[in-house]
Automatic annotation (TrEMBL):
Keywords, comma-separated and alphabetical: Transferase
Biological process per Gene Ontology, one example term: fatty acid biosynthetic process
Domain of life: Bacteria
Record-level Gene Ontology MF annotations: 3-oxoacyl-[acyl-carrier-protein] synthase activity
Organism field: Luteibacter rhizovicinus DSM 16549
Pathway: Lipid metabolism; fatty acid biosynthesis
Full protein name: Beta-ketoacyl-[acyl-carrier-protein] synthase II
Amino acid sequence: MPPLSIRAYTATSALGRGLDAHADALLASRGGLEPNDFSSAPLDCWIGRVAGLEEEPLPPELAEWECRNNRLAWLALRQDGFIDAVRDARERYGASRVAVLLGTSTSSIGATEEGYRRLDHGRMPADLHRPVLHTPHSLAGFVATAFDLEGPCLTVATACSSSAKVFGNAERMIRLGLIDAAVVGGTDTLCDSVLFGFNSLELVSGEPCRPFDANRGGISIGEAAGFALLERVTEDTTGPMLIGYGEASDAHHMSTPHPEGLGADIALRDALARAGIEAGDVDYINLHGTASQKNDEVEAALVARSFPATTRASSTKGFTGHTLGAAGILEAAITLLAMRDGRIPGNLGATTPDPLCGPQMAWTSEQREVRIALSNSFGFGGNNACLAFAQVGEPA
């Protein structure tokens, strides 16, 4: 496929606000997980919480969209010059030629939960009687409104692959001439639904998650927001590019991956083919690596059989927790940082490697040039996505 320029990107998570905060934490091997102090009832687990979000409401002109999820999105949009980049794209192309394509798994459901906890004679309380909030499309609608954009506005909700799959949506729309640029990414915030929901599936760990550790005990849930601006490559393009993506839906089970990693393997092969590269060309893979038993087992075997020992791979969920629908964009941003800084993130939390892991695993941080990288995002229901990135001038 013709590559797309990543004109700007940003992320906010438990590691901090903006790209440099993430780079500093990754360099120092400093994780952002802490004991759960968020849920409405006690739950013994660790979370990746964005500090100070409660004290930063939306500006008055956007108050209709007020909720934790949109607060976090607004915070992230104001990092790393991202707002200026989007406004510049709107000026160059026109408001109707810039799409908003965002992934989320829960959107603003936290506000809906609060409303049901405070029902007023069976009705939503007055301060939450705002229909734009109580919909899966709240996030994308908010971002389109904040930027005054009039192009396609799409929400993708495919569980933990959501904010990776939007890159594919953007490529298709740009290639077909429907748009000239796209704001892609996603946001998911902590809420009772995900904390107690994953706990009911016996997937939540009582200690900080340990991806690919032989004794791992489950996931740690986090929150994050991230965004990227995609455009066609031009003569003056600099920086990273999206050179491929792969998608698959094996539908093996509602919450368990295919035992041989069928969907993940198809998504990987699809990404390599679109990028026009071989497995041996890949310098780094940011793994989905949730620290659940089945995901890590399947993904470790996939990497071990598919890539040479020279390829490096790691999960960064030990730093941030699993940010669900925002995992794709957060980990894409971390992958782009690895390319920018020439530094492979370590696989924080693992002390006893799972025997299924091959020599590709980077257990600690490594200094190394990263020219071509992949980022895996695997969701419930077999919704799998793989993104391929390269620096300008590399194979595309």
